[in-house]
Amino acid sequence: MKKRVLALLLIWAMVAGVSACAQAETQRLVFWHSMSDDAGRLISEYVKQFNETIGAREGIEIEAVYQGTYAEAVTKMNGMLSNGQRDALPDVLQMDATGKVSFAAAENAYTVDALLADHPEIDFSGMLAPAMANWRLEGAQLGLPFATSTTVTYYNRTALNAAGFSAPETLADIGALSVLSSDDIAVYAAVPNTPTLANWLGQMGSDLVDCHNGTEGTAQALACIENGALVAFLDAWKDLYATGALVNRSGSTDEFVAGRQLIMTSSSSSVASLLTRIGDSFELGVAGYPRVNADASAGATVSGSCLVMFDHGENRKAAAWKFVQYLTSADIQADFARGTGYLPSNAAAAESDAWQTLIAEHPQYDVGLRQLMETPDTMRSVTVGPAADFYYAIMNDISDMLENDLTAEETAELMRDDLGGMLEQYARANP
């Protein structure tokens, strides 16, 4: 009896030992993301697929955790960094531009530059240059583009064509549509903010703030006043308002879908949901972002999100990189673009049969990608410390211009004081 008990104990110990070894060999990683609805369901599918294929072979298990909006995820990351909770940070984070500065300053940030130092054989030449450039800060490549987007113009093609109009290309073209406005229908509703103002200034060859829109150092002043770009835009915006085609409020997707707003500028990632919601109500038109005037270049800054990694030891870093590779692969990028409207971030995905079939069926998807390819990678989105206050100050100051009939020059000085003051204060507090 004693021998049998001893034998059973030995067998249990051996099984427990094997289980413990298997558990130790499996790298369990945490992935924070901000994708909900259809995009969130796709993320769940990709994580499941990874765990059952590559993960099963390599001993990697990914736990995907939804962290709310990008802002909420960045706020949580910032709180952990401030409190020294490095171990609580995820292995992989889906991050938007508001997290660039704090991620770059984190002691355990595992940037793409650091990855390349460990693995110089890795080649990123297949990634689209404008998308990659958006995730560079002060010369360092922080992460890889994942859910890439740009801002495009959505319009009610049915209504415009019926009145003899084509897709608007400039702000003046939108102004010409004022004949279509009524008590029930607005032509265009918008209030410029940080990314959209950066788009229009970028078309005129100007940054919004210094240090190349804050990507090459801490921005401390506006870069668009002395060169005249801000005044030129404000004049054009005020002229558009005077036509009656512009309503001074943020655009509404619900109003656009209902046919009560004819033009909307919004993320290219909205294509899929708009096609579904509009259905047969009218034909959805998609065009490039409107140019300030005929002399301005086409294009809009890249937006969306990237994938960044944190250093939790060599084994977990290596596992995290395998997962990031998977999410940025051509197959996943093409499938994610098809299911959401986000743009594929690498050339192979853009050339894939899945993407080519999609744009043949729905050419609306292709507009954002073509615009992305036309936009120089020197046209950067804005990175500033006081991001939220800066965003709303732009909206408030430009609204004041329209509502209080300020001149473009007066408004530019107001913005120099308000926005420049925020930048100076932030720079002093964060030397």
CATH H-level homologous superfamily name of the largest domain = Periplasmic binding protein-like II
Strand residue percentage: 5-15%
Largest sheet: 10 strands, mixed
Gap between N and C termini:
75 Å
The level-1 CATH class of the largest domain = Alpha Beta
CATH topology label of the largest domain = D-Maltodextrin-Binding Protein, domain 2
Which word captures the global form?
globular
Based on the structure given, which CATH architecture of the largest domain is correct?
Answer: 3-Layer(aba) Sandwich
Number of alpha- plus pi-helical segments: 21
Number of strands: 12
Question: What is the count of distinct domains?
Answer: 2
Query: How much helical structure, as a percent, in the residues?
Result: 40-55%
The average pLDDT score comes to 91
Gyration radius from CA atoms, angstroms: 25 Å
> Structural class given helices, strands, pairing?
alpha/beta
Low-pLDDT segments = 1-23
